[in-house]
Amino acid sequence: MDVLVIGAGIAGIASALGLADAGLKVYLVEKEAAVGGYAASLCCKATDVCSGCSVCVVPEKIKQAVTHPQISLLTNSTVQRVGGEVGNFCVEITQKPQYIDTERCVACGLCAEVCPAEPKAVYLSSAEAIPFSYVLDERLCLRFKGESCKLCGESCSTKAIDFERKPRGQELNVGAIILATGFDIFDAREKGSLGYGRYPNVLTGLDLERMFNHEGYLKLSTNGKEPKNIAFIQCVGSRDEGHGYCSQVCCKYAMRLAHLIKYQSPDTQVTIFYIDLQTAGKGFAQFYQEYRESIRFIRGVPVEVSPASSDDLEVRFEDISQGRVCREIFDLVVLSVGISPRKDSWDLARILGINLADHGFFDTKEILNSNGTNVEGVFLAGTCQGPKDIPDSIAHGMAAASKAMQALTVRGR
Amino acid sequence: MRGEIVAFCCERSAYPAADLAGKGKLCYPDNLRVIRIPCAGRVDAIHILKAFEKGAAAVLVLGCEDGACHHITGNIRARERVRYCDMLLKEVGLDGGRVGMFNVAPNETHKFVRIVNEMNEKIKESGETK
Amino acid sequence: MTSCIRDKNIDRVVVAACSPEFKEHVFQQALENAGLNGHLLSVANIREQCAWAHEGDVTEKALELIRMAVNRTRLLQPVEEKELSVNKGVLVVGGGFSALNSAIQLSQLGLPTTLLERESTLGGRIRELENMYGFKTGPMIEAAEGAKNIDILTSAEVLEVEGKIGNFMVRIRKGAEEISRSFGAIVFATGYETEVTDQDFQLKPGVNIISQERLAQMLQASSPKGRPQTVGFIFDFYDENSRFPTLATLSNALAIKQKWGSEVYVLCRDVKVDSEGADQLYREAREHGVVFSKFEEKPRISADDGRVKVEAKDVFLGEDMTLICDLVVAEERILPPAGTKDLSFLLSIRTDSQGFYQDENVHLYPVASERKGIFFIGGCRGDLDFQRALADVSSVVMNVYGLLSSGKVVVEAEKVKVDPQKCVACLTCIRVCPHSAIQLARTEGEKEVAEISDLACDACGVCAAICPAKAIKFEGYSDEQILAQIEALGAP
Question: Between B13, B23, B109, which is nearest A56 by CB?
Fold first, then answer.
């Protein structure tokens, strides 16, 4: 019997691989043009040794999934309607028009060369994107503005481009559904006093990850220099009113990034402001001992970041050990933003008839089954159920696959 | 004058990193010749020495980060072998540092490019082997 | 491509195009469709690693890459696929929460399971969880005992494990007798142990300083003699891995408030809230009047007239704080179960830096080990909370089911192979193989040689590189094939 996995982030991919390896046919549906989700955009945080961030596991799982004969990947696709019950769900899926066929495109780039639009209407979304294919942006394409341009189509040697493609609807019959829709990064603009979006040298942890990935090192956007005095502020969008949970990833990524910065430039000062340091977990304790020596830890989370002279930033915090309010100057402030439930969770919850829990993540049915929902045959995998890091998401994804397998096996008898 | 750099790249880490560098159009010296291997631990001294015999100016062995090798200790064994070859090369009069073992994660394109560039600078400074 | 191979009787193929990472599997399929073995293919990466990586004219380099690939391809030999049968039975070692649940789930999927527990009864530390999570363990044990394809061996232990995935031979001691059984996969769920960190207190745990386990028993008993007025909890000073102790402290502190109405003080360094529901529980405990104080230094503890005096410097107040408690719940370190070291040595599996099962290698997470078919779940692989252990359980069930459910596995036959003529049985390969895939076998000529199991081998080539007699050939990456690529360097 076939299974539908919604969301091709790391948890969805783990679920799909688990089921496909057991011989089931899996439809892996992804809303975006590329698979991998957030996990695929993070950077390796190894210094001389691996720091255990698990980011390098992601490209490998992606490769396994996209080449697996039992997995059908549907990108740019969303679920519109679900009917039926466990063992016999009927799912309606719509795929955005694929003007460039990902199967045919060999990413030669000729189409982008000839495209007269400014900015180019055909492009690669990123070097890491999988499927590795150009996309045609109908908002930029001259043809969709009423002109008769077809230069890219003529230039394409594999005939991958077709302007006449329409949104494609299809119906799938599946026995079980696994939801692995992931999370939204907390929007740091909501914490106005921390200055994200207003001051260019206030960044989020994710910005830092992507900067390391794309540049290989840190630089300030204001003067192009390397930052010399960096503050990390923990629990931005976690453990507060409205987010009554720990995001589970921020302490570790902040410490690993801080250590990577110290490794690359030992002169840089790094300070981490925290409430409770989350240092539990396999293999982390020994790193923490090392981190304590190179990183300054201050208990207490700053409430305000304001501009100081030139591009520097003043951070106001309460030094608990001295019992008074302090001000200190940093040239870069990094907000360790947490994991929030997806804003569009409600739509899917409605389509599937499942419940949302207090914080907005999908609700689980019972304490002994963190994959099950109130609808039999619909299972949860990964961060759409609650915050998780990469290994935990993989474990949870495999667990969801196992629960789906069990549901189908029990019914089959 | 030739002066290739032969890079033995682990197919799980450095090889995808090299691909990604190309996809991102990051340029590196065109004297690099990549040989794909299943794990850095597959590289034997004879492979490294053969490359020098055939006129390579430098050899790189690129594997996963220490502690993240799929085969647990493959990259550590490779490092030992590289050290051994470095010693042999010194004995025959090739100045040290022409063979190196480095760790690259599959998405560390910049690190890959940096390693290749640094090795290229080094061989330019010390001249060709032939 | 397929018809070209077929029509022209081509026996080996070089594709000079994009990276093999991108489309190699497609080309291999094309070869197979034409009736040619998929391994007789080389891809010269003249796009990602040539045209796109350099500026200027790189035609010369592209030609050289193609020559390298051609040289390699000449020497390629086919690698056939082979179907091997595997034993569908699973051995689950342990009798606690993770072990019971994985055995139940495996048996529901139709895999015959043997549950092996060291103690005389099942359950392990499972009853500690009853209080915290409000489920009953009785039905869980009954379900395992009642399932027709679960075989339960209590008072039993693993003595020796031989063989490979699909066919492990396990020698077991049960009571006074020894038995041998064969299993397709082995799941270790041996749990953890705790140790009260009393040595620094200069006190033996006695009446007033107790463990979490003892507290749970006291809370379960309906009326404790003389309810303690003041209770102190201490944790997170000795052990970073304190997710579970944090959860236990939070839920027990709440229970004391609700059942006994005592004053409750929690002394810790950091509250480890990075597990599901922990932050909510922390909030709830504070709302119920549990007082949390955070310290950088370990508190000093002394006995004072039958009560316990705790002194420490509070980071919030910045001054010394003295607390006189009727009852102190001491910090417990979570330790690997006894026998972990011996068993991991026996299995040639590395432990982590804290001595738990499973090496700290991200590619093994969540449940795998460096040996195919051997898995570790739950507390025995390090600090885990309840929800993570649950994910481990279902995850391992999927892994095992995927491996064994069909009763057969398709492998690449003799991809890495020992030449019995050259092998001198020096055992070097057996020693270095990270996956324990090599063993000694007797040839027809009564000579002992190394033999590589196709099932257990993960094709890394470490053995081929290290073999002093050069007796191991790794098809596709053999010495000749690698050297042939190097031979093409520079030569026009």
Answer: B13
User: Residues for chain B: how many in total?
Assistant: 130
Q: How far apart are the first and last CA of chain B?
A: 8
Instruction: Decide if B112 touches C, using CB distance below 8 A.
Output: no
Query: C90-192+336-408 has which fold?
Result: FAD/NAD(P)-binding domain (3.50.50)
CA distance C44 to C41: 10
Domain that holds residue A396: 3-96+167-182+342-412
Provide the token pair at B118: 């640094």
Q: What is the CATH number of the domain that holds A305?
A: 3.50.50.60
* Residue A405, CB-side half-sphere exposure with 13 Å CA sphere: 33
Q: Are residues A209 and A302 in the same domain?
A: yes
Q: Length of chain A in residues, anyone? A: 413
C-beta atoms of B68 and A56 within 8 A: yes
More confident residue, C203 or A370: A370
C241–A398: do the CB atoms touch at under 8 Å?
no
Å from B115 to nearest chain A CA?
Answer: 12
Identify the three-state secondary structure at position C29: helix
CATH number for the region C195-332 comes to 3.50.50.60
Q: Which of C395, C391, C388, C390 minimizes the C-alpha distance to C368?
A: C395
Residue C297, helix vs strand vs coil: coil
Q: Which fold has domain C414-474?
A: Alpha-Beta Plaits (3.30.70)
User: Is residue A20 in some structural domain?
Assistant: yes
Q: How big is chain C by its Cα radius of gyration, in Å?
A: 30
Domain boundary (A338, A355, A381) is at A338
The span from the CA of A307 to the CA of A262, in Å, is 25
User: What is the spatial distance between Cα C9 and Cα C114, in angstroms, rounded to a whole number?
Assistant: 53
Rounded to the nearest angstrom, the minimum Cα separation between A262 and chain C is 23
The top-level CATH class assigned to B5-126 is alpha beta
What average pLDDT score do residues C173-197 get?
A: 93
| Facing residue for C47 by CB, picked from B22, B32, B50 | B22
Residues of B in contact with A55 (CB under 8 A): 105, 107
DSSP A220: -
- Chain C hits for A394, CB-CB cut-off 8 Å, are 365-366
Residue matched to tokens 């100045």: B95
Count of structural domains, chain A: 3
Are A359 and A319 contained in the same domain? no
Judgement on whether residues A324 and A262 belong to the same structural domain of the protein: yes
> Same domain for A91 and A191?
no
* A-C contacts (CB, under 8 Å): 158
Nearest C-alpha of chain A: how many angstroms from C484?
A: 29
Rg (CA), chain A: 23
Residue A162 inside a domain? The answer is no
Is residue A101 assigned to a domain? no
User: What are the per-10-residue average pLDDT scores of chain A (413 residues)?
Assistant: 96 98 96 94 93 94 95 96 96 95 89 92 89 91 90 93 93 97 96 94 96 91 93 95 93 96 95 94 88 92 90 89 85 96 94 94 89 96 96 97 94 71
Helices (H), A44-150: 57-67, 110-114
**Largest Cα span, chain B:** 40
Check: CB of residue C420 under 8 Å from CB of residue C440.
no
Topology alike, domains C90-192+336-408 and C195-332:
yes
What letter does residue C489 receive in the DSSP assignment? S
Task: Quote the pLDDT of residue C223.
Answer: 66
ipTM of predicted complex: 0.95
> Residues A238, A126: one domain?
no
What's B18-82 look like in SS3?
A: HHHHHHCCCCCCCCEEEEEECCHHHCCHHHHHHHHHCCCCEEEEEECCECCCCCCCHHHHHHHHH
Q: What is the mean pLDDT of residues C193-219?
A: 74
Q: Are residues A52 and A171 in the same domain?
A: yes
The answer to whether position A104 is within a domain reads no
